[in-house]
Design a protein that fits this description.
Structural class: alpha/beta
Oligomer: single chain
Strand order of the largest sheet: 1-2-4-3-5-6-7-8
Largest sheet: 8 strands, mixed
Distance between the termini: 18 Å
């Protein structure tokens, strides 16, 4: 399968889009906020058999930069997604959201329930500001793990930064994301990415002391929630999202926040049975 990429204009911003596969449409929402879709690859592309995956870099991240004056809160992200679905002429649509993208999918479903067909939520960001704060605490604690700290010190004391800057940057990236993994060494298998801090800050600031649980209980949409047992996001958060949506909650016992890397085959198998596809 050969992907097709292009920029499209919606709501006064240019968004980078990438499409692969053929069949029923599934719109993939990356995490961050302020990141880009690349780090979901190549793993998510395994789901393109029998369906069309539509990725895009959300405003203010990756290949969808915006002016510093452009707003980038959660309402703008929801509006962009709605505009893309209209541009693509999609009816009630399957949304496949990872991390922050899972929360974005939920925010979209709350505000546009008639346009939401199905929800696939992978390691969704917390439904409350309190659980998000707990995630940040756990992530910081893991980042201070003796193994990760020792590797950071070893890297800092090496001459790799001058001898091979590219390898140095790759290793620094791996150590920065290692706390997301059950096995920190698996960070080497994640496609590198960058987060635009201004966009990230804008989204969380716009959400404030949020709690979307009451709105989730009012939704009636087929959904599935996937989360790793060792995710720094509290497992109870994903479990509660699933309960409120009356959806199955599938725990990946050998994964942290990145089950598509740590348990790829099961990840593909579980979602392949849930997402629409041609037979």
């Amino acid at each position: 399968m050969t992907p097709h990429s292009e920029h499209v204009e919606v709501n006064g911003v240019r968004l980078f889009t990438r499409t692969i596969g053929d069949g029923p449409d599934v719109v993939v929402l990356h995490g961050g906020p302020g990141a880009h879709h690349d780090y979901l690859l190549p793993y998510f592309d395994r789901l393109a058999t029998g369906r069309r995956l539509r990725y895009y870099d959300q405003r203010g991240g990756g290949r969808s930069p915006v002016d510093r004056e452009a707003p980038a809160g959660w309402r703008e992200h929801v509006a962009d997604l709605d505009a893309l679905l209209a541009l693509w002429k999609l009816g009630p649509t399957t949304l496949l959201g990872y991390s922050w993208g899972g929360l974005l999918a939920l925010l979209y479903a709350i505000t546009h329930p008639a346009s939401t067909g199905r929800l696939g939520l992978v390691s969704p960001a917390a439904a409350t500001a309190a659980d998000r704060a707990e995630f940040e605490r756990r992530f910081a604690e893991r980042a201070n793990d003796a193994r990760i700290r020792a590797e950071r010190e070893r890297l800092a004391q090496s001459d790799l930064k001058t001898r091979d800057p590219e390898v140095y940057r790759r290793r620094a990236f791996e150590l920065s994301v290692a706390p997301y993994f059950r096995d920190p060494e698996r960070a080497r298998d994640l496609t590198a990415f960058r987060v635009t801090g201004r966009t990230q800050d804008a989204v969380w600031h716009s959400l404030g002391d949020y709690d979307i649980r009451p709105q989730l209980a009012a939704l009636s949409v087929p959904a599935i929630v996937i989360q790793g047992r060792h995710d720094p996001i509290p497992l109870e958060s994903g479990e509660e999202i699933a309960r409120l949506l009356r959806a199955p909650f599938v725990v990946f016992e050998h994964s942290g926040h990145v089950p598509y890397v740590e348990e790829t085959e099961r990840f593909v198998s579980v979602l392949d049975t849930f997402l629409p596809r041609t037979t």
